[in-house]
Amino acid sequence: MINIAVCGANGKMGQQVINAVNDAEDMTLVAKIDINNGEFVTIKDAKNSVNIDILVDFTQPKSIYENALYCLNNNIHTVVGTTGLSDEQISELKKLSEEKQVGCLIAPNFSTGAVLMMKFAQIAAKYFNNAEIIELHHNQKKDAPSGTAVKTARMMADVNENLAYGNCEETETIEGARGANSYNNIHIHSVRMPGFMASQEVVFGSNGQTLKIRHDSTDRECYMPGVLLAIRYVADNKNFVYGLENIL
Length: 248
Description:
The protein is of the alpha/beta class. It has two domains: 2-106 and 220-246, 3-Layer(aba) Sandwich (Rossmann fold); 112-217, Dihydrodipicolinate Reductase, domain 2 (2-Layer Sandwich). Helices cover 32% and strands 24% of the residues. It has seven helices and eleven strands. The protein has helices at 12-23, 43-47, 64-73, 87-100, 112-125, 147-157, 224-236, and strands at residues 2-7, 27-33, 54-57, 77-80, 104-106, 131-137, 180-181, 187-192, 198-206, 209-217, 240-242. Strand 4 (77-80), helix 4 and strand 5 form a beta-alpha-beta unit. The two termini are 22 Å apart.
């Protein structure tokens, strides 16, 4: 059995993970960690009381890096679903994971449909020289742009060095009107409002045509097969992985 601790246990994603773990025949939930009325308030509290094989983190952008550092330094394998890590922080966690030989899987999105959307966008980026990303989330999401949008942009930039080819010199009369200019000139636009859960559209254009690749999550249950896949992977492979697409 794989002993699982869930950090952010009282959040919407944390509750879904708990249900999924409880339904899995090869996993046992040993700790619910949450600063708001959790069984344990900190990871350290839980570690001192129970044996944790893998910690699943769905907390807040401001705490994920320190959480991951603690796990890697204390031989707790971890699956991170919270977004908001910088490129530098991801690089540091990769280095530490490899040094300590402690598994760490970070996934901006656990939905298989979203992962396919990112892969399709990467394929399309080879054939278009203009692309922008629009990501839409509920108004309680604290980080922007989303980790999915950042990961998508990185994947697209890996195959195309300039995705704003031929654009004229621009002037924003209102700062931010063109969104965030990310990797290789891919503009990312973040929408936050009630009514959305998680959606992303990648728009490609060339003379005479446009292509739109879109994914919509309508229920958090869609993430659970990916979460369980990540847990089982980390249990068997003590390495560092960034992106669910790398283990599908």
